[in-house]
Design a protein that fits this description.
Helices cover about 35% and strands about 20% of the residues. It is α/β, with parallel strands linked by helices. The protein has one domain: TIM Barrel (Alpha-Beta Barrel), CATH 3.20.20. It has an eight-stranded parallel beta barrel, surrounded by five helices. The N and C termini lie far apart (about 40 Å).
Length: about 240
Amino acid sequence: MLVSVRDPAEAETARRSGADVIDVKEPARGPLGAADARVASGIVRAVGRHRPVTAAAGDLGEIPPHALAAFAAETGVSIIKLGVRQPISAALLAEFCVLRDKLPRATSAAPTLYADAIDASSLNLRTLQHLRQATGCGWVVVDTWDKNSGGLLHAWRQEQVARFVRTAREAGLNTALAGGISFDSLEAVLATAPDLIGLRGALCDGGRSGRLSARLIRAAKQAFPAGDSRKNLTRPVESPYSVS
């Protein structure tokens, strides 16, 4: 279970309540709102010895590669998540290649595909293999851009999500699923067998912009099978894809 947090206090609450991965996000800045480097650094200092820390970093192209590299170097996060709203193309792969080559070796960039903007049927095995190689990251995330759209299972049917997870695994990618996942939909999302599920809104008093609740985190954790997703978070990826 990945839990998105906005400050060190929330990070500590998430860690103590059962989160396997701590994700840094500023909900007021959008679906993948980037937190300030100072905040992210404080979260890494608070919980980084105990849990992997990832960070939302806006959509691909919003922040220049050199600035993302500086953010990664300053904060020490394991993965930065970058939103993708358009079909996977050679130009998009080239952007990820440029970023991959600028990031510190300890940090990789995980593509975060918006299910309410991308057709699930376009994400075939070859496309996901190219994405894996271009990013140099062993993870792909699916999220939603519009947090009022009804959530992941409104954008993609359950069988589409399950097929995506299977195809990603065949391509050598771990999957993290997020996007308005509620307690009511959690069981159906778990049934698609992802490697991680990302939550925030369902775990807050007052929605995603409210404060994380230790009680709600513990309640959500009870739905997850026994195990620990942290072991694969920074899995290395071989044969980086290059675009000439």
